[in-house]
Amino acid sequence: MTKIRPLRLGVNIDHVATIRNARGGMHPDPVRAAKMAAGAGADGITAHLREDRRHISDDDIARLAREIDLPLNLEMATADAMLAIALRFRPHAACLVPERRQELTTEGGLDVAATRDRLSRFVAELGRAGVRTSLFIDPDEKQVRAARSVGAPVVELHTGTYCDATGTARISELERLRRAASLAGELGLECHAGHGLSFETVGAIAAIPSIVELNIGHFLVGEGIFGGLDSAIRRMRALMDQARHQKSA
Ligand code: PXP
């Protein structure tokens, strides 16, 4: 019987802060959402402290670090100011992402080969502080190999193109994700995935055996409006586990 590798769920609470910030004030509180996620079966909390602070604030990060028992995964741009913040809070993990001010969300993966020196420095400095660093990359062989070469212990594969695609384009993007995940495993990299995942798209990604963590946010917060955040997270968790077990049976 094949050994089933556990699949962790990191719940990204950025968009609870987006709603809060639409009016200012404290409601809804992303830290309360993080506590609810913990109770609903999340294995970790993910938050993206963007340079323009459009959702998560510095104070949110301080409170998450202080009040949440689950591992915190800090998504951040490769900017020195962000590095200083990460070194101050020392989250369990940091996920380095490309960031442009005008984008609505993280639009693509890092070009690791083109920013090798900077990424090597970030991975090394964070690693020395005990922060496990992942690089958010497109499911591309060149990027996986480059991530290995800058010393990153983890890659997170961008699933946004897969989620947005339909028909044969979706099938070929899924194949690209499978190949990239398998290469990451062969190179000794821990493999995560995320972006745009929903109840409909999560199963195929959860079934890829070398992926060990999914980071999911926007869909869960949106779905929470209709059926509650707790129930959305529980259902996502159940769909992930089901897909994982079916694949490995
Ligand atoms: N992983 C990374 C690296 C991201 O940048 C994001 C978006 O902040 C996510 C996962 C979660 O994506 P979504 O909110 O679409 O589920």
Short recap of the structure:
The protein has 249 residues and is α/β, with parallel strands linked by helices.
Describe this structure in words.
By secondary structure, this protein is α/β, with parallel strands linked by helices. The chain has a single domain (8-248), classed as TIM Barrel, CATH 3.20.20.70. The chain has helices at residues 14-23, 30-39, 58-67, 80-89, 116-128, 141-149, 160-164, 167-186, 202-206, 218-227, 229-248; strands spanning 8-12, 44-48, 72-77, 93-97, 132-137, 154-158, 190-194, 211-216. An eight-stranded parallel β-barrel has the order 1-2-3-4-5-6-7-8, surrounded by seven helices. Helix 6 links the parallel strand 5 (132-137) and strand 6. Helix 10 crosses helix 11. The longest helix has 20 residues, at 167-186. It starts with 7 loop residues before the first strand and ends with a helix. The mean pLDDT is 95. The protein binds pyridoxine-5'-phosphate. The site of pyridoxine-5'-phosphate has 19 residues, from strand 4, strand 8 and helix 10.
Characterize the main sheet. 8 strands, parallel, barrel
Please give the share of residues in helix: 40-55%
| DSSP summary, beta strand count | 8
CATH class: Alpha Beta
Class by helix and strand content? alpha/beta
Q: Give the strand line-up of the largest sheet.
A: 1-2-3-4-5-6-7-8
Mean pLDDT across the residues is: 95
Percentage of residues in DSSP E strands = 15-25%
CATH superfamily: Aldolase class I
* CATH-derived architecture: Alpha-Beta Barrel
